[in-house]
Amino acid sequence: MTRTVDTTQELAAFLRARREGLDPDDFGLPVRRRSRRTPGLRREEVAELAGVSVDYVVRLEQARGLRPSADVVEALADALRLTPDERTYLFNLAQQRQPATDKPATAAAPPLARLVADLAPLPAMLMNHRSDILAWNDEMAELVLDFGELPPAQRNSIRICLLHPRTRDLYVDRDQVVRESVAHLRAAWAAHPEDRELTDLIAELSAEVEDFARQWTRQPVKVGGRGRKLMRHPVAGLVSVDFEVLTPLQDPDQLLAIHRPSDERSRVALQRLWAR
Questions:
Q1: Residue 103: inside a domain
Q2: Tens of pLDDT along the chain (276 residues)?
Q3: Which three-class secondary structure state does DSSP give residue 196?
Q4: Residue of 216, 242, 211 whose CA lies nearest to 228
Q5: Which residues form a coiled coil (predicted)?
Q6: Residue 138 domain-assigned?
Q7: What CATH number is attached to the domain comprising 78?
Q8: Quick one: 132 and 267 in the same domain?
């Protein structure tokens, strides 16, 4: 019979299992006679590494009703040297929100970069949370712009859409693009408040794009994971594309954006473009 998870009991069991699975030699701790040790680290040693009391660790491992704060969970995760997946699991068990990293990816994970290339002829690109472009295929470059022509600091999809002279007239409904850009950046800003480059990007767009500044004050919030855009392409003509943004489980700080023609006319037009 399947039962619901008792998070307090599971948290206790998980902490014990990870503590007992550690090798004291990896921590440079004093060597004691093995006959006097439980497997792995002592509770006292975990408490010292995490900066909490021994009694607190004991109560957690005995499932005595404690709910550790996010700071304590972070300290325990560091002390137990948890993997990223284990760290997320611990935060979920403690019913705490895991702090967002403010160090966004600046390079594409190699398997994802290969996937972007393999998705051809569908235009695809890989981005981080602030929409910096990390990888793209030739079809994506043909659809929007050859991002390789830009300095790395300017390879941001929202910045390109709103500020680059070759894309100012690319989107038929520019107001929609502005609204979606503001909504996405607001969500990213809330999740990464210490990201200085993200803050600078928002300030630049607010100063340069009047519609962006006006929309920003209205505080729309939405992660743009799916939608449709009508484009006035200089070579292919009027084309409609659907986009889907996916988050890889192994690299959740990277976003995979895939584009597809919305209708048969657009499919034919884009095929001709890519065959050039």
A1: no
A2: 445 668 888 889 889 988 999 888 888 766 654 444 567 899 999 999 999 999 999 999 898 878 899 999 999 999 999 988 788 888 888 888 777 665 677 889 999 999 999 999 999 999 999 999 999 999 999 999 999 999 999 999 999 999 999 898 899 998 888 888 888 888 888 878 888 999 999 999 999 998 888 888 877 666 667 899 999 999 999 999 999 999 998 888 899 999 999 999 999 999 999 887
A3: helix
A4: 242
A5: none
A6: yes
A7: 1.10.260.40
A8: yes
Sheet containing 237-246: which strands, arranged edge to edge? 133-136, 124-127, 255-261, 237-246, 226-233
Task: List residues bridging with 239 in a β-sheet.
Answer: 231
**86 residue type, one letter:** E
Measured CA to CA, the distance from residue 64 to residue 150 in angstroms comes to 57
Number of domains in the chain: 2
**Is residue 151 in some structural domain?**
yes
Q: Do residues 54 and 122 both lie within one domain?
A: no
- Alpha helix positions (H), the chain: 7-20, 43-50, 54-61, 70-79, 84-93, 110-118, 138-143, 157-163, 174-191, 196-208, 210-217, 264-275
Q: Whole-prediction pTM value?
A: 0.76
CA atoms of 116 and 138, how far apart (whole Å): 10
How many residues are listed for the chain in this entry? 276
